[in-house]
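look at this record:
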Amino acid sequence: MLSTIRQSKFIHRSIRSSITLPILSNLSSRNSLRFNSGSVQDNFHRPDVAGSDDAADAADAAATILADSRDSQKQPNKVTWIDALREREKQLKEGKVLDSYSYVTPKTTEISEKTRADSFSYLILPFKEDQWLCDAYINAYGRLRAGQLFQDLDALAGRIAYRHCSPAEPVNVTASVDRIYMVKKVDEISNYNFVLAGACTWTGRSSMEITVRGYAFEDSVPENITEDTLPKSNIFLTANFTFVARNPITHKSFAINRLLPVKEQEWLDYRRAESHNAKKKLAGKKATLIQPTDEENRLIYDMWLSSKSFENREHPKGIEFMKDTKISSTIFMQPQYRNRHSYMIFGGYLLRQSFELAYCCAAGFSGAGPRFVSLDSTTFKAPVPVGSVCSMDASISYTEHIHEGPEDIDADSPFNFRLPATNTLSKNPEAFLSEPGTLIQVKVDTRIRNVDTGEGKESGTFIYSFFVPKESYGNGNNKNGYTSVIPQTYSEMMTYIGGRRRAQDTAYYVGTLPKPTTTTTD
């Protein structure tokens, strides 16, 4: 049954297999000869040919094989970009605005009640069984490349949103990513089969919260996948998205089906989401910049004094001024990364690109391979149109050191005053913060510019948190094993204060997660 599901629902995997599997057994046997035999030596490649209609025939195409296989397949939920472009030009001549090529009528405006089971959806990523699928999701350190997973999370959340709204077909868009958090480490992803699964957990009039969780299995995934058959102990990731529905004809908000929780846990999740959305609405009415408290004002003054001590001398290895951590990237938004509506860029692609830049920033700053911990609440302020230019600026906004105990809290501090970390060392060995190291927060600001008019606007700000274990540095130049960012201006210090607040929020969120179960023997 499971193989049937994979063949019918994940056709992209079949296409990938058709490219790689015919040569896989041959490569495996040659690999065995090359590395396991003392007498036989052979080069690990096939002879090059003069002509080909398959990108995989080029030995240097490893980075493009998967992308080509995806781009070349027919997509039943989309039209070609040429067709979409011609239709939009036609509508513009008639004075009409076209939000979506595929969704031009909501079909019905009737509202009903739906349960979580009605929208439940999942995606299987069998890394342990498919080495080439694993190869597409692995980073240079052999760990999970989280940016790839973000695309799957957002796409799955979109599928869940449309299943909840059915039979109506409004234009659903990602309004915000409320949080993505890595509950535990899954470093060796080749040892796991992943399942991403989720459902609609809260609804307003025209908005809905989608909760998606990642499950890691060291053996086969359950034959029958439901919320009940996916063990909570296997959860390695949690993610929450907010989608809003619009009427494709009037371009106004569209009333969606109400969610009916039927179990105790569903009611608890519903109330939690309801409280969270109420807080978001309240925060939206307040000023963007919250005035610092008396304690934070003292912290700003102390940081200013500390920063002055670094101005006229070379600062130690592992310490950087905030202004020196900034890196930038500019990308032209091509139609290959459009969403199902054809005219806007897929939100998961923007998440991936902003994450890759944040990762570069954290890696360059720390001088080690950072591990993704969380993405804080992010609001998409403006959709990104196909054909626009997206500029991204990333910089380190906050750092804090995680220690084994309070006795060494000041030993590696860049400041000349005491500043305890907001997070503490976890007793769970599977958690990221289970060993000493540095928590690094990266802020990515994105802007889009219309090529024709030159008009620019903010698209959103992404806040990523990474962790670099102290042991990552070994016997390198960074002797104390920690890194620190130093703000100098008042604006930078307010950024630092904002980062510390977010770190406190994350610490509180971690405290609400279920504690890992331990097995004891008599």
Notes: Confidence is low (pLDDT under 50) at residues 1-37, 518-522. The longest strand covers residues 389-402.
